[in-house]
Design a protein that fits this description.
This protein is α/β, with parallel strands linked by helices. It has two domains: 159 residues, Glutaredoxin; 108 residues. It is built from ten helices and seven strands. The strands form two sheets. The chain has a five-stranded mixed sheet with strand order 1-3-2-4-5. Strands 6-7 form a two-stranded antiparallel ribbon. α3 packs across α5 and α9 runs antiparallel to α10. The termini are far apart.
Length: 323
């Protein structure tokens, strides 16, 4: 009689385990179907995953999307994790062997502490412990995530190696972006149809093209792009006094771009005065005097420009004035 009671107890315990595990799997499957393969986990779910035998594998991403923590890597990694979960759900919609879950730190800080997780995001693979999908090594496996390992391809390969099951990534169409860009294109065409005559009038104005061309010449010749690319300081310090010219031909301060632009602008206006304004002066003496003054002024400005060039190129031997 005692033996029969023991057998009955074992049978009941086994049936209880089977039905409880089956209920959990069905619950996971239902949650995954309603959220494109992602299961939003809570304390109860994690407790069941950690303490009960698993006839399934689950990949859990411990992360946070809280503005308070502003986790850059979390925001960068989550789309890849979501794509893998969605792809798995798309290719195996009724699968009960592999799930993907997310646990939010802000609502489950005590669980993070119990698991001794010191950084986020963390991805842990919990392999199946029983059943056909069980592995010899069923211990939880933590993925080594570095800032560069963010792509969905790398993540899918890393998870596949842990559970010995291939994961195929499906590239989904983003219908929201398609609708948005189609709407923007429609508005652009409508705007162009309404304003095309005015746009053609503006584009045919020589004055605007002249200003645009001169602005581009000044910007590119002043070293503005070099300063932006190298993020050079605006000015330097030389013996506790500000320095405005960096004595090197391979770099420059930000203020040097302003100095060069102003210098070229002055030279440009002197050329315009010589070629456009002075020929219209009727008085020959005034015309001659203005031409001489402008040429002298140009000579001084060119001397200053050449002096800056010599400061940045110490072996350059030529100069105009004694600067």
């Amino acid at each position: 009689m005692r033996i029969n009671l023991q057998k009955l107890y074992l049978i009941l315990a086994f049936l209880s385990y089977v039905f409880s595990t089956q209920d959990l799997v069905l619950d996971f499957l239902k949650r995954a179907e309603s959220n494109n393969g992602i299961i939003q986990l809570d304390g109860t779910s994690i407790y069941s995953i950690l303490t009960k035998p698993r006839n399934y594998s689950i990949v859990v991403m411990f992360t946070t999307n809280s503005i308070e923590y502003n986790c850059y890597v979390c925001k960068k990694l989550y789309p890849s994790f979501r794509l893998i979960a969605k792809s798995r759900h798309k290719t195996h919609p009724k699968s009960k062997t592999l799930f993907f879950g997310v646990l939010e730190y802000l609502e489950n800080a005590n669980i993070f502490a119990q698991l001794q997780l010191t950084k986020i995001p963390t991805i842990i693979v919990y392999p199946a412990t029983v059943g056909p999908a069980a592995l010899k090594n069923s211990k939880p496996l933590m993925l080594n995530i570095r800032d560069g390992d963010i792509s969905s391809e790398w993540l899918a390969q890393a998870i596949s190696q842990k559970i010995n099951e291939p994961i195929h990534i499906v590239q989904f169409l983003n219908y929201g972006k398609i609708v948005f860009y189609s709407f923007i294109a429609f508005l652009s065409l409508l705007f162009f149809k309404i304003t095309h005559s005015f746009i053609f009038y503006i584009m045919s104005r020589k004055e605007l093209w002249l200003i645009f061309s001169l602005a581009c010449i000044l910007i590119f010749n002043s070293g503005y792009m070099l300063v932006k690319i190298r993020k050079s300081p605006f000015n330097g310090q030389d013996d506790n006094s500000p320095s405005y010219i960096l004595r090197s031909s391979h770099a420059q301060y930000g203020i040097e771009s302003h100095i060069i632009v102003v210098t070229y602008l002055i030279l440009m206006f002197t050329v315009i005065l010589l070629t456009v304004f002075t020929p219209k002066i009727a008085n020959k003496r005034k015309q001659t005097a203005l031409i001489i003054l402008l040429i002298i002024f140009q000579f001084v400005i060119f001397s200053f420009l050449l002096h800056i060039f010599r400061m940045k190129n110490r072996n350059y031997p030529f100069k105009l004035l004694l600067l």
